[in-house]
Amino acid sequence: MTDNAGIQAEDAPIQNPSVRAHGVRNNAVLHDWERDQVFSVSALAKEVWNRCDGATPLADIGREIGNSVGLPLDKILNRLRQIASELKRQDLLFLPCRVLENEEASTTIHIIFGNHQVEVRTSASEFAQVVQRLFCEMIGESRARQRLDVLDVWKQGGKYYMQGTRGHHVEDGSLEDTVRTLKHKISRRFKEARSDLIWLHAGAATQNDTSVLVAGEWGSGKSTVVANLYRAGWKYLSDDRIPYDPDSGQIFSFPVPPAYRKPEEEYLSKDELAGLPKEYISLEPPRVRSSSAQVDAIVFPAFKPDRPEKVEGRDAAEAAVELACGCLSAGRYHGDAVEELCQLANQAPAFQFQYNSGTSIASALASVVK
């Protein structure tokens, strides 16, 4: 291996979170499913990669490995530097960023999903406030959770910059653009870490332990429906993406506050709809469902300003196809995701929900929750 990436003994590399390691006899395969690439590596390279958590210097990793094989650090360090440098060159390892000029003045926010976390560090107080509002129900203590990424955000010359373990994500951006990118990156890291779940482009809410999955393509009105249900007293799970566990048949809460665009009196194209400002709803902790839930009904909304409200049954096969089209992890699951979503559509009744700007959404869906 070459040493053109130059990882030093004091560096603390971190794993590319989209990579999975598989032992193959005496060696290993590292699979980067985001890039759809596989790499054959030695057993020693796999040992190095397994220990790279972004906090442990390569020298300490070398001591651990050296102790296990009975060799002093000075006998193996150069070899480990070569291995780590090659893994970094192949984007299988990264070096955590150190970009904040004044880390003592920065705010650190831990965004939590289960046993995983993404760490956000920023010296821009207004950015920290937006992140704390946006992820208010997902912020927690670090504890022993696995850290998936460290995202540093800073402001310079009136513009925002964001850098993570994979390099720059935003350069010379607005506050809105940077927050949007941050939200996307955090969601993606959790999706990568929990690849055992099927991630759906959908929202969900519960009432009296009856849970409704609200699915559909962008602009169909999912967020509007979920926001209205929340206002009507339902408990909130998510408005944009839902993790579904095919083994238990349960959905999990991903409680980023709902953001929706107010429907107009006339039909708008997707380009016109994208230009409307979003309204955010502040969540009340007692009204956010923290436990998993069974899917009791699937609703596909459609905003039709010039037509009467209507709820009618949807064919299960058609529902399964639409769920698969909105599956954010279908590429990784291939046929398995389709099979699991067919089972979901077979178990939970599906409904087409047509509504207009005057519709009382909670009342119109009363027949669904019954």
Strand segment count: 22
Shape: globular
Give the overall pLDDT as a whole number.
85
At the fold tier of CATH, the topology name of the largest domain is Rossmann fold
Structural class: alpha+beta
According to CATH, what is the class of the largest domain? Alpha Beta
Ends: how far apart?
Answer: 64 Å
The proportion of residues in beta strands is 25-35%
Structural commentary:
The protein is an alpha+beta fold. The chain folds into 3 domains: 14-93, Coenzyme PQQ synthesis protein D (PqqD) (Arc Repressor Mutant, subunit A); 103-193, no CATH class; 198-369, Rossmann fold (3-Layer(aba) Sandwich). It is built from 12 helices and 22 strands. The chain has helices spanning 43-51, 58-69, 73-89, 125-134, 175-193, 222-231, 270-274, 316-325, 330-333, 335-347, 361-364, 366-369, and strands spanning 14-15, 19-24, 27-32, 37-42, 93-94, 107-113, 116-122, 146-156, 159-164, 167-173, 198-200, 202-207, 210-215, 235-238, 242-245, 250-251, 259-260, 279-280, 293-294, 297-303, 310-314, 350-355. The strands form 6 sheets. The protein has a 6-stranded mixed β-sheet with strand order 14-12-13-20-22-21, with helices on both faces. The protein is globular and about 75 Å long. 36% of the residues are buried.
Itemize the secondary structure elements and their pairings.
Blueprint: E1 14-15, E2 19-24, E3 27-32, E4 37-42, H1 43-51, H2 58-69, H3 73-89, E5 93-94, E6 107-113, E7 116-122, H4 125-134, E8 146-156, E9 159-164, E10 167-173, H5 175-193, E11 198-200, E12 202-207, E13 210-215, H6 222-231, E14 235-238, E15 242-245, E16 250-251, E17 259-260, H7 270-274, E18 279-280, E19 293-294, E20 297-303, E21 310-314, H8 316-325, H9 330-333, H10 335-347, E22 350-355, H11 361-364, H12 366-369
Parallel strand pairs: 7-8, 13-20, 20-22
Antiparallel strand pairs: 1-5, 2-3, 3-4, 6-7, 8-9, 9-10, 11-15, 12-13, 12-14, 15-16, 16-19, 17-18, 21-22
